[in-house]
Specification:
elongated; 10-stranded parallel sheet; about 40% helix
Length: about 375
């Protein structure tokens, strides 16, 4: 089973972007106490309080709305954090809309140097999102905003989308699991038609459906900056997949596209993606797992890979490929030398010899890439 292990390891290697923020070496991390005080010290001048007793401090993580109850000014911002390198992690602290408003107030302060802000899982609703949106219209330091697992809905995301029309510093936005629906996706798509600074957009788990996918596809035909788009768990179906595929025929900036777990995309969706790959020369990472594209969709993709030499990572797990589809993908590896990560697990009745052959060819492609 050595070659099976090689294939499985390929899922974790390469250049595939992982979900959520990935800390870089020597990042200027600070703990939540420092972060909260840092935000307040940017916008509120308070006399310094010297509290040495642990009992006098509010315990973290035990109240439904933490930020409004924090005492201000207990610490000054570290000198390193005043040089535009602040990474503030407020995730899972249940700060709610009131906390979001206080964060927004700090972001609007000209002295704010926060560049990366995590607000994941904070019970923030539309009102809190609107406050953040107003801050984004004025803030010039923030580059990454992680807003996943809140409940901002279409109204909240529409407010942030409007802010994107004027904001020129934000590079990455994460709205995973926020119930934005087709209406929210359409608002974001409208902003992408004019915004030329956002590079990464995460919208997974929002049930945007075919309508939302079609709106984003229209934006992709005009937008020239976005390089990463994540749309997993959105029930876009074959219609939405076809719309995105047609956009890929003309879009020449997107290099990562995640479309896994999108319902019954089926062979039609697989064939539309294949057609796009025949002409697209920029996409490097494509994830289509658990979409039921079947052997027909896999065969079409294999034929496209005969002409495409830019796809680096391809994931087709759980797609009912059967022997015919897997054999077609493995055969194309005889001529395709760009594919270095291939996921096909979760497809039934794949012979061991075929897996062994695939593993060997993938390893050959990797070795060739290393020698270049």
């Amino acid at each position: 089973m050595r070659y099976c292990s090689v294939v499985c390891r390929s899922w974790k290697e390469g250049t595939v972007e992982q979900y959520g923020p990935q800390p870089r070496a020597r990042s200027p991390w600070i703990d939540s106490d420092e972060v909260l005080t840092s935000f307040q010290s940017l916008s509120v001048k308070q006399p310094q309080q010297h509290t040495s007793s642990p009992e006098s401090r509010q315990p973290y993580g035990k109240t439904p709305s933490l930020l409004p109850q924090m005492s201000f000014g207990r610490r000054l911002i570290d000198e390193r954090l005043q040089k535009g390198r602040v990474k503030a992690n407020l995730s899972e602290m249940k700060i709610g809309d009131e906390g979001a408003r206080q964060v927004a107030k700090a972001l609007m302060d000209p002295a704010c140097t926060v560049t990366t802000l995590w607000l994941r899982g904070n019970n923030i609703g539309p009102e809190g999102a609107m406050a953040i949106a107003k801050a984004l219209e004025r803030n010039t330091s923030l580059k990454e905003l992680w807003f996943s697992r809140n409940n901002i809905g279409p109204e909240g995301v529409a407010a942030i989308a409007k802010a994107l029309e004027t904001n020129r510093t934000l590079r990455s936005l994460d709205f995973e699991l926020n119930r934005i629906g087709p209406e929210g996706a359409t608002a974001i798509a409208s902003a992408l038609e004019t915004n030329q600074t956002l590079k990464s957009l995460e919208l997974s788990g929002n049930n945007i459906g075919p309508e939302g996918a079609a709106a984003l596809a229209t934006a992709l035909k005009q937008n020239k900056k976005l390089h990463t788009l994540k749309l997993e768990f959105n029930n876009i179906g074959p219609e939405g997949t076809t719309a995105i595929s047609k956009a890929l025929e003309t879009n020449m900036t997107l290099h990562t596209l995640q479309l896994s777990w999108n319902g019954n995309v089926g062979p039609q969706g697989g064939m539309s993606i294949a057609k796009a790959l025949e002409t697209n020369k920029t996409l490097r990472i494509l994830e289509l797992s658990f979409n039921r594209i079947g052997p027909e969709g896999a065969t079409a993709i294999s034929k496209a890979l005969e002409m495409n030499n830019t796809i680096h990572t391809l994931r087709l797990s759980g797609n009912d490929l059967e022997l015919e589809g897997v054999a077609a993908i493995v055969k194309v590896l005889e001529t395709n030398k760009s594919l270095q990560n291939l996921g096909i697990d979760g497809n039934k009745r794949i012979p061991y010899d075929l897996m062994k052959q695939m593993g060997r060819r993938i390893e050959e492609n990797r070795n060739q890439a290393r020698r270049k």
